[in-house]
Design a protein that fits this description.
By secondary structure, the protein is mainly α. The chain contains 17 helices and no strands. The chain has helices at about 10-45, 50-75, 80-100, 105-120, 125-135, 140-165, 170-190, 210-215, 215-235, 235-245, 255-285, 285-305, 310-335, 335-340, 345-375, 375-390, 395-410. It has one domain (about 10-200, about 205-410): Growth Hormone, Chain: A (Up-down Bundle), CATH 1.20.1250.20. The relative contact order is 0.15.
Length: about 400
């Protein structure tokens, strides 16, 4: 199945945008589940051990890594990109509904892990659709509105869900059922996007796209800096929940406090700042923008872990949210600036898979490291790693300027 021939370029753009607004809304609910409820229920209801917590935290990133494998085998079919984007979300929905009604930690963990693996594996297909259907100079503008909706819904659903859990923790049954139906609805939204069939791959194995790391040296270098910065950020991601929840750190926040710090504060800042960062992405040197975002992330993580003072933790969470506002746009769209025509999906699969690698091993190493050096030191170490990655980008500024000029000439 190929893209409908009777749709004009503008019609494809507008239909994609409308479908993406629906996708963004449902994704916001799923995002709140990944950020807050999965780990909270595993810790508070099931008393999960560190290995289980690390695997649950790593699940979305396992899906990112496996997205390259999925893209390879999808290219052997004649299915549309939107079909392949919808299928993993449908499976995710079924898994989350099953997770909702189990009383076994093992079954809960397996279903949640499988569900969030599928949720992340569809990313290259959706980004490829953006590359096909959105004008090059307006991609961030179009993408930012569904992202804004996603962030707003995540903050609201995180707050409402935390109230339900505060009244009775067994209400997680209904929360995860709702998450599952949102994943199914998201699948329908993606399936409705106009799209081409997945491009055929010239590779004989699933990881053939990794060659672009070496063939495109600038792309590979930015990926290296992103890997260092991203690892420093992602290995603290589950630790943020653990730090304000688990008794060994002395905070033991309530469900509402955890939701405020992990979801409501950062998602509210994201919602407010997404239009600002989106306008910069379309107009500004991408490399300089990435450097600024790195510093926001670094300062946020540093403030989050250096103290048990809830106000300072809240400030750190706000900075992280401000960084994620721009980081979400940059992470999803930057390959459209680097990839040659027809290679957006391939480049995105490399970027997503490398994110998956650092996101999978990050939580495991993060839990081990925090037990060795403590929460304050892991915050300091993460900040220094992000600062180093930022300084590494200085030689790439010239290339970023050239890409900006090239984009304006199109």
């Amino acid at each position: 199945m190929s893209q409908p021939a009777d749709l004009t370029s503008e019609a494809k753009t507008q239909k994609t945008y409308r479908c993406d607004l629906w996708r963004g809304g449902f994704e916001g609910v799923l995002s709140s589940g990944a950020q807050t409820f999965c780990l909270f229920i595993a810790i508070r209801y099931f008393n999960a051990g560190e290995n289980t917590k690390a695997l649950i935290a790593a699940a979305p990133f396992m899906g990112m890594f496996l997205s390259m494998v999925l893209l390879h085998y999808a290219s052997l079919t004649n299915w549309r990109k939107s079909t392949w984007g919808a299928l993993p979300s449908l499976i995710s929905g079924v898994c989350l509904v099953l997770a909702a009604w189990t009383e076994s930690l093992t079954q809960f963990a397996c279903m949640v892990i499988a569900g969030y693996i599928c949720r992340s594996s569809l990313l290259p297909f959706v980004t490829d659709i953006y590359g096909d259907n959105y004008p090059a100079d307006k991609r961030a503008a179009y993408f930012s509105k569904p992202l804004l909706l996603s962030v707003g819904v995540a903050a609201l659903s995180g707050l409402i869900g935390s109230w339900f859990l505060e009244s009775d923790i067994k209400n997680y049954h209904w929360i995860f059922t709702f998450l599952g139906f949102c994943a199914i609805a998201k699948a329908l939204a993606i399936y409705s996007m106009p799209s081409k069939t997945v491009e055929k791959t010239p590779h004989t194995h699933p990881f053939g796209n990794m060659k672009y790391v070496w063939l495109d040296k600038s792309f590979g270098y930015v990926l290296l800096t992103w890997f260092i910065m991203g690892f420093a950020n992602l290995w603290t991601l589950p630790l943020r929940v653990d730090y304000i929840t688990a008794p060994e750190w002395g905070i033991e926040g309530s469900a509402i406090f955890v939701a405020m710090i992990i979801t409501v504060i950062p998602e509210t800042l994201r919602m407010l700042l997404i239009p600002f960062w989106a306008s910069l992405f379309d107009k500004m040197n991408f490399v300089v923008l990435r450097m600024i975002l790195n510093l926001f992330f670094g300062l946020g993580v540093l403030l989050f872990f250096v103290t048990s003072n809830p106000w300072v933790i809240g400030m750190g969470s706000a900075l992280i949210g401000a960084a994620f506002a721009g980081g979400s746009i940059a992470w999803n769209l930057w390959v459209t600036k680097y990839a040659p025509p027809g290679k957006t999906g391939a480049y995105m699969s490399v970027h997503v898979s490398l994110t998956g690698i650092r996101g999978t091993i990050g939580p495991i190493l993060g839990y081990w490291t925090v037990n060795q050096i403590g929460a304050q030191n892991i915050g300091i170490l993460s900040f220094l790693m992000m600062l180093f990655a930022t300084l590494m980008l200085i030689p790439e500024i010239k290339h970023g300027r050239n890409m900006l000029l090239k984009g304006k000439s199109l």
